[in-house]
């Protein structure tokens, strides 16, 4: 009875050792790639193009591509968002220190660049593997998915920018409109010239 259980234990130990060695080697190469962002992103871009070419040639797996697009959009939002949300923290947005004891806090991303790249690469790899299984090739009308993704992209792009909202922005046209004119005729000629040139405010 000890023979089969001993074999199972030996196989389990060998599998655990292989997993540990693989994990260590994988982490080693990840660490070596950290100071080379351009090469990392170029490799991911090439792999993404291979994935898109495969989807185009197969004329399928649109739902997998849509899911990948939504996930990449979510990652992009995390990459572009600050780690401290002014609304959640009860702050008034980005502001300069008012006292000598206040500390300047630079923009820190919620999702660092390396994790952003790694998550994108892993997602593209998983989506690529999924294209080899027909169970994921759900028949859908892809233009609707594309339109819906574009709508989501622009709605997420309209997320409030608290730092930008704190600064009042004047356009050039408004500043020029606020210039005090010595006489009304010169102002009318200037405004007429702006209208002829296509400017409006």
From TrEMBL:
Protein's cellular compartments: Membrane
Recorded GO CC terms: endoplasmic reticulum; Golgi membrane
The keyword Iron-sulfur appears for this protein: no
Membrane-spanning intervals of the chain: 41-57, 63-84, 116-133, 139-155
Keywords: Membrane, Transmembrane, Transmembrane helix
UniProt membrane topology term: Multi-pass membrane protein
Gene Ontology biological process terms in this record: protein retention in ER lumen; retrograde vesicle-mediated transport, Golgi to endoplasmic reticulum
Pfam families: Rer1
Record keyword Isomerase present: no
InterPro entries xref list: Rer1 (IPR004932)
Source taxon at top rank: Eukaryota
Family that this chain belongs to: Belongs to the RER1 family.
Protein name: Protein RER1
Organism: Vanilla planifolia (Vanilla)
């Amino acid at each position: 009875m000890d023979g089969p259980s001993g074999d199972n234990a030996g196989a389990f130990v060998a599998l655990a050792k292989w997993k540990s060695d693989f994990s260590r080697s994988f982490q080693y190469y990840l660490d070596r790639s950290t100071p080379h962002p351009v090469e990392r992103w170029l490799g991911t871009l090439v792999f993404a193009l291979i994935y898109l070419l495969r989807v185009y040639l197969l004329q399928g797996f649109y739902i997998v591509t849509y899911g990948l697009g939504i996930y990449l959009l979510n990652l992009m939002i995390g990459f572009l968002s600050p780690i401290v949300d002014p609304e959640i923290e009860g702050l008034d947005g980005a502001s300069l220190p008012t006292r000598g004891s206040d500390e300047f806090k630079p923009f820190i991303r919620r999702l660092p660049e390396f994790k952003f790249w790694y998550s994108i690469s892993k997602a593209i790899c998983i989506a690529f593997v999924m294209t080899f299984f027909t169970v994921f090739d759900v028949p859908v009308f892809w233009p609707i998915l594309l339109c819906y993704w574009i709508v989501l992209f622009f709605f997420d792009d309209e997320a409030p920018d608290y730092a930008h909202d704190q600064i009042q922005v004047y356009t050039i046209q408004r500043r020029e409109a606020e210039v005090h004119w010595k006489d009304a005729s010169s102002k009318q000629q200037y405004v007429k010239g702006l209208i002829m040139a296509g400017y409006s405010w």
